[in-house]
Task: structure prediction
Amino acid sequence: MSLIKAGQILELFYSTDNGRVNTTELALDDKGVIEDKYYNKNIQRSVLITSQESYKLAAKHGIEAKYSALGENLLIDYNPYHLKPGARLIIGTLILEISQNCTLCKSLAKVDARLPKLLKDDRGVFAKVISSGTIHKGDNVYLLNT
Result:
């Protein structure tokens, strides 16, 4: 078992009834992002991880989307979309396990009608929390190689 540095946390977000909040740290436990309105709703979809590559892909097609528009909790500079369910990421003391690819979301059409189809396979991955912790903007992201 070894750790491979994969990237870094660029931005952190959580959802409230009043919209998305950008923050410098997030506390997570086995039910998800503690301050998020989706906390303890669906453990398999507790954390949405998106790569900045998704935003670059949108921009390449003339779609301007601000960070958090894809609904992510973690925006990272590593593309995790190739990771299979069961793969684990470590950020500080936090361990996340990839549970599934992000599904097509019609709410992305609010940003641009082309976005749901464009990002069908490139919006992000869902993860569940295996080991609780607090993560910070700028933290390193490691892939657990088993």
In short: The domain at 2-145 is CATH 2.40.33.20 (M1 Pyruvate Kinase; Domain 3). The CA atoms of residues 95 and 131 lie 5 Å apart. The chain has a mean pLDDT of 93.
